[in-house]
Automatic annotation (TrEMBL):
Pathway stated in the Swiss-Prot or TrEMBL entry: Lipid metabolism; fatty acid biosynthesis
BP GO terms, sorted: fatty acid biosynthetic process
Protein name per the record: Enoyl-[acyl-carrier-protein] reductase [NADH]
Active-site residue list: Y161, Y171
Residue numbers binding NAD(+): G27, S33, I34, Q54, D79, V80, I107, K178, V207, N208, T209, L210, A211
Catalytic activity: a 2,3-saturated acyl-[ACP] + NAD(+) = a (2E)-enoyl-[ACP] + NADH + H(+)
Source domain of life: Bacteria
GO molecular function: enoyl-[acyl-carrier-protein] reductase (NADH) activity
Organism: Candidatus Abzuiibacterium crystallinum
Length: 271
């Protein structure tokens, strides 16, 4: 069975494990988004979802996707660099849901010129922007979620990539931002643990999405990954989504502060 078939078979798996649970998903831009794959998986396991979209430019595309889900899902505008957006988002989620069980952070951004060339040339502005959007935002959205998760406990998952700990050509400033994000996962896990709120990261192998295509030489990255990975293939987005589901759900109840690699065994390889 090929990797794609394995993932497709897993995709049809559904349950009532998340029935009655409420999840907020950040980072759907289009049907290829990892956030969308996670949303569909959470929905198949019974969760009710709320979504954000970054701006009017992608509102229509997100709206169209969201209406395909069986349960009505509220949609909120949210640019994570705007504190008023985050406040309005959580006011809206509180009004719609009352409580929140799960938070999915699938947000990253760096300027195109900072995803190629020499890292030494990264501008101060580009550095700050990449870190604000891709790492600091985890703190601000977790802070908004905390009071809504206090009653029932909760679980937060953020998406990350191997470029945080290994040098990946052209990933550059985003590697530094992901290192910060992953550290944030651990600090938040410690801080929110007493409230029974778990925080974990899913480190995905390369997946062909809008954000990924912004990385110079991304197609080469996919080829290289396929050749080197233990499973001799790239990951399917459904496999990433299934791991996020596992970590969020009661199945992951003993896990917090971890980064789980869903990379078809790429990271373990030396030579
Ligand atoms: N695609 C991959 O190969 C890969 C691998 C590992 C990790 N990831 C991570 O997965 C996550 C999702 O990315 P994706 O690959 O699905 O791409 P994507 O382009 O579909 O998603 C990125 C999202 O970030 C949002 N975003 C950017 N700036 C924002 C801002 N200021 N405010 C609010 N939202 C903002 C975009 O609107 C978009 O929805 C990212 O954290 C990415 O780094 C991706």
């Amino acid at each position: 069975m090929s990797g794609a078939e394995t993932a497709q078979n897993e995709q049809v798996f559904s349950s009532n494990l998340l029935q009655g649970k409420k999840a907020l998903v950040l980072g759907v831009a289009n049907k290829r988004s990892i956030a969308w794959a996670i949303a569909q998986t959470l929905s198949r396991h019974g969760a009710q979802l709320a979504f954000t979209y970054q701006g009017d430019r992608i509102k229509d595309s997100v709206e169209k996707l969201v209406t395909t889900l069986p349960k009505k899902s509220p949609l909120f505008p949210c640019d994570v660099t705007k504190p008023e957006d985050i406040k309005n988002l959580y006011d809206g989620v509180r009004a719609e849901f009352g409580t929140l069980n799960y938070l999915v952070h699938c947000i990253a951004f760096a300027k195109k010129e900072d995803l190629e060339g020499r890292i030494i040339d990264t501008s101060r502005e580009g550095y700050l922007m990449a870190h604000e959007v891709s790492a600091y935002s985890l703190l601000t959205v977790a802070k908004g979620a905390e009071p809504l998760m206090e009653k029932e406990g909760g679980s937060i998952v953020a998406l990350t990539y191997l470029g945080s700990e290994k040098v990946v050509q052209n990933y550059n400033v985003m590697g530094m931002a992901k290192a910060s994000l992953e550290s944030g996962v651990r600090y938040l896990a410690h801080e929110l643990g007493p409230k029974n709120i778990r925080v974990n990261g899913v480190s995905a192998g390369p997946v062909n999405t809008l954000a990924a295509r912004g990385i110079s030489g991304f197609t080469k990255m996919l080829d290289f990954h396929r050749q080197k990975a233990a499973l001799c293939r790239n990951v399917e987005v459904e496999e990433v989504a299934n791991t996020a589901f596992f970590l969020l759900s009661p199945l992951g109840s003993g896990i917090t502060g971890e980064i789980i690699y869903v990379d078809a065994g790429y990271r373990i390889m030396g030579m």
